[in-house]
Amino acid sequence: MKSASLLLALGLTLSSASNAQDFSQVEIKTIPVAEGLHMLMGRGGNIAVLAGDDGVFLVDDQYAPLTEKILAAVHAIDEGPVRFLLNTHWHGDHTGGNENLGKAGVVIVAHENVRERMSVKQVIQARGIEVPASPPAALPILTFPTSITFHLNGVTTEAVHVAPAHTDGDSVVWFAERNVVHTGDTFFNGFYPFIDVGSGGSIDGVISAVDDVLARADDETKIIPGHGPLSNREELQTYREMLVTVRDRVRAALVAGKGADEILADKPTADLDAAWGGGFLKPEDFVRIVVSDLSR
Ligand SMILES: [Zn+2]
Asked: How far apart are alpha carbons 186 and 193 in whole angstroms?
């Protein structure tokens, strides 16, 4: 059975619905993160901007109708050209500006599964949502299987592919000398995360991606989440605890032989919902995703 609220949440997440959204009121907020590094918030995934004499490096680009505003915000930081765009994964709220930027000559880079998925129609299986293939100019022209390192603006910027987590093409991007990381959608700061099981994602993968970041981060690390405000190691640790709690409860219920409806009726996240349930996903939608993931 489809959940109307999950469909709505997916509509906000995926490019298939971007035409139906009104972007005219969206303002791009610029948040300083570290020397030469800013985070942009508008609608869709958070953007990282690394600026300097060697040109601008972007992580993710939200939706196509926002490209002009995003570039205005970027050029208020630095007037130089945008040279590279790294996509953390294929979802349209992180790649919607690709066609505009690709046509402008920006080199688009991503894990090889991002290009593969964007090249053909995608179906969010359990929900029956179709996302059409992207036009050629929107596709990453440089792909990598495990990691890629950029040496720009005095910063070693390393995009590292993690085992399937939010999707099967996720990258986490480290700006080494600045002690900053962009986690892509392996981290929703303050909300239950969408996990795209149909694109190869899993909650165990998200937890393991979070563990990798926790292992490398320290108390000074600035963490740019895929969604939500600028964050830090302590908040990421809290997020991990929530994920593990929900996973363990759902798994225990499945082992006890309960079905999806019974598990939902038990409200296994009731004590967590005040803190985590006010974002993209309603608690029951998140539980449904975890049930479908762990039932496979
Ligand atoms: Zn996503």
From this structure: 8
